[in-house]
Structures are given as structure tokens and as C-alpha cells.
Amino acid sequence: MKIILTHEVSGLGAAGDVVDVKDGYARNYLIPRKFAIRWTKGGEKDVAQIRRARKIHEIQTIEQANQIKAQLEGVKVRLAVRSGDSGRLFGSVTPADIASAIKASGGPEVDKRRIELGAPIKTLGSHETSVRLHPEVAAKVSLEVIAA
Q1: Distance (Å, rounded) from C-alpha 77 to C-alpha 128?
Q2: Which domain of life is it from (predicted)?
Q3: What is the mean pLDDT of residues 128-143?
Q4: Cα dihedral angle (40, 114, 116, 143), rounded to 10 degrees?
Q5: What CA–CA distance (Å, rounded) separates 128 from 88?
Q6: Is the pLDDT of residue 124 over 70?
Q7: Residue-by-residue DSSP string for 82-100
């Protein structure tokens, strides 16, 4: 099935790209989560509009991405969450939580969709996350999860 991506999807493409994926992946995952829309001949107009919007929000150069990377790696991010006696969290830490914690710690504003978690964060302690700033630049953020 041919689709138009409306958001960046890891391993597939960026917003505005027209890609061909398996029908089930598009129908059951990408389209319901608003990551993509079905491709139509009239949808080509949407592609140009999505690409214009992407250019506005996108980090333009590698130098700019490296500056933001230096800021992110220099910030100590602490996130207070509710946890049980054993250090296990009630739920897990989401990318939105991490993005707001980075902003609260004095770091730059980061889009939650650019934060990549290797595994769900469900315990207190120190964790590493990755922030994809540019296709060629990713920043490692150290996150300290503490009890609230």
C-alpha cells in the first residue's frame, strides 16, 4: 500500500515522504496513529504542504544539531515520579515526561517524537535515552529517575 507519512517514523522515512509498506502495517499501525495517510492522486498537494511544515520545524543544519546536542549532553535531567517501596514505578516514564523534564532542567525544547527509549523505564535510578536531532546527529541524555 502506498502511503504519505505525516510524521517521522524511524526506519521508514520523514514527514512528507511517499512510501510503499505492507497493507497490515499501514492499516493497523500507521494510519490509526495518524503517522500516515493513504496516497491518492489528490494527496500530492498534501505532500508539498507537509514538506513545507517539516522544513519550518526541522533543525536545518548539522552545525545547529551539534549545538543542541552539546546543550542536551551538558544538562543533568532529573525526573520525580511515584514509585513503590521496592523502587518500581507506578507505570513507566514516557517520552513526553522526558521532554518536559529536559525543558524544566534548563535544556532546549525537544519534540517528544524525537526521543527514543531502548526499553521502557520502570525503575528508579540512572537511565540513558537518545534524542534524534538530525538524521546524522543523535544526543545521549542521562536521566536520573527519583522518587516523588
Answers
A1: 11
A2: Bacteria
A3: 88
A4: -160
A5: 17
A6: yes
A7: -B-TTSEEEEEE-HHHHHH
Question: CA torsion angle for 39, 45, 47, 53 (degrees, to 10)?
Answer: -140
Alpha helix ranges (H) inside the chain:
23-25, 44-57, 62-74, 95-104
User: Cβ atoms within 10 A of the Cβ of 1, count?
Assistant: 16
Q: What's 56's DSSP letter?
A: H
| Dist CA 145 CA 79 (whole Å) | 5
pLDDT-derived band at 95, boundaries 50, 70, 90: very high
Whether 147 and 124 have beta carbons less than 8 Å apart is answered as yes
117 contacts 129 by C-beta, under 8 angstroms: yes
Q: Cα–Cα distance between 71 and 65 in angstroms, integer?
A: 10
